[in-house]
Amino acid sequence: MTMNVNRDTENPGRPFSPDHWQARLDELRAACHVPGATLAVLVDGNIHELASGLLHRGTGVEATTDSVFLAGSIAKVYTATLIMQLADSGRLDLDAPVVDVLPEFATPDAEATKTITTRQLLSHTGGVTNDFTYDSGRGDDCLAKYVEAARDVALDCPPGTAPSYGSLGYVVLGRIIEVLTGQTWDQALKDRLVAPLGLRQTMTLPEEALRFRAAMSHLGEPGQDPDPAPEWDLMPRSAGPYGRVIVSAGDLARFAKMHLDGGAAPDGTRILTSDAVAAMQRHVVDVPDKWTVSADGWGLGWTLYDWDGIAGFGHDGAAIGQYGYLRVVPEAGVAVVLLTNGGGARRLYADLFRELLAELAGVRMPDAFGPPAQPPTVDMTPLVGTYKREGVVITVSQQDDGGARMLYEFVDGMKDLSPPLDMDLSPVSETVFAASGAGPSFSEEYMPVVFSTLTNGTPCVYVGMRATPKIT
Questions:
Q1: Model confidence pLDDT, tens digit, residues 26-36
Q2: CA–CA gap between residue 211 and residue 112 (Å, rounded)
Q3: How many CB atoms lie within 10 A of CB 110?
Q4: Residue 440 pLDDT greater than 80, yes or no
């Protein structure tokens, strides 16, 4: 498989047709078994909002443009924006060690702890792990308690040696915000972003969502209409800085527009300096796994895309069956937001955004990930072995018939998180493989598995953008 993408010059810049895109949203949503979805499109300075389907298949409540969804990891960009505000004001040095502002921050590697910077946490290069979900309670001290508990959580890899997607780092960033503002992360977001941007359907706490038409999470087997989940949201309050902003598609588009407008709110209020906005979108590190979230690199908070020379930024999010997607094309002044509540959301995103971005911004998205018709022959000898990071062991083996398999197991404190995944590996290239057999826990037919090397020479494997070093 290749990542070739081409600019579509046939129809870029056509006026946005709400009727046409409403019909396409309805059609594609139904085909993908997505119960409900909302779409917001920023083009020519205007935001168009559309809705389709049901918020809850059990009650029959319809989705509307003011409905709110769990945006999952898109919350990270809000946290990154708050951090950049503090850097703008001179209250935070992005390149100073985190312990300078947060002395209680620590990892089991004392020397590494002294070197990890805020900039590294923003760009997922600090080595901290993603898979540390810790319920530190509902109190205003939940982030402080999380940071204290995280002191014993091992790094995925040494700081600065590779990108490794890390939600733990964003809780640390959230705590930095609390220390420097004297507010909870939730309140800082309200006062410093939500209010000045006039965002009326943006919140962080579940009880706040009850004021609005809130999308219910749905779970089920691929290719079938999913059922309402047993619970709406299982995440603890401490997940907020990395995983819980509850938002409408239109409000997310308005947030993106501020970044497109150089950091200014609609009334001219300065949210960020133009330098800070540019810094967030500036390339920091390449991403070996270019398929899990279609990333080509990472900036400060933003996922970065390169569509055949056309630059873009955005982020994906997932939360208990709800999936969100944001793509921004600065040169075209276009932003597209899709929020969903279950089913084949990834396919809906790919099909819908491929059409939208081609017509409105003149770009074509990559094809779906999967093995080529004639897979290459790959020597698995250097790749076979055991890979380990906090809570996860990955075993790569070669079968008697020459095929390769991967066993992905949660261990130690995470052993009850999910059953092991035992998957076949089909080669895409010498270092990239398509894993099949992940089951309903993964939203696509194939899971990218990417073998790479840390800058210190240690082999590693990427699954879900997490770097797992080889130990044997």
A1: 999 999 999 99
A2: 44
A3: 8
A4: no
Taking the CB of residue 448, how many other CB atoms lie within 10 A of it?
23
CATH 2.40.128-classified regions of the chain? 385-469
Q: Is 78 exposed, middle or buried (0-12, 13-18, 19+ CB in 10 A)?
A: buried
Structure tokens that stand for 19 in this block: 């009727």
The residues assigned a catalytic role are 73
Q: What is the mean pLDDT of residues 44-48?
A: 96
Return the closest-CA partner of residue 201 out of 330, 66, 293: 66
| Fold designation for 385-469 | Lipocalin (2.40.128)
From CA 322, how far away is CA 216, in angstroms rounded?
A: 8
**Alpha carbons 81 and 450: distance in angstroms, whole number:** 30
In DSSP terms, which residues pair with 434 in a beta bridge? 426, 448
SS3 at position 39: strand
Q: Please name which of 283, 324, 293 lies closest in space to residue 462, comparing C-alpha atoms.
A: 293
Q: Which residues pair with 203 in a beta bridge?
A: 246
- Is the pTM of the predicted complex or chain greater than 0.85? yes
Mean of pLDDT over the chain: 93
Size (the chain), residues: 472
- Cβ burial, residue 97 (10 Å; 0-12/13-18/19+): middle
Q: Provide the 8-state DSSP code for 5.
A: -
How many beta carbons lie within 10 A of that of residue 268, not counting itself? 7
Q: How far apart are CA 372 and CA 271, in angstroms?
A: 46
Residue ranges matching CATH 3.40.710.10 in the chain: 1-368
Q: What single letter denotes the amino acid at residue 109?
A: D
CB 394, CB 461: distance < 8 Å: yes
pLDDT band at 8 (very low <50, low <70, confident <90, very high): very low
DSSP annotation string for 307-341:
ETTEEEEEEEEEETTEEEEEEEEGGGTEEEEEEE-
1-368: CATH topology is Beta-lactamase (3.40.710)
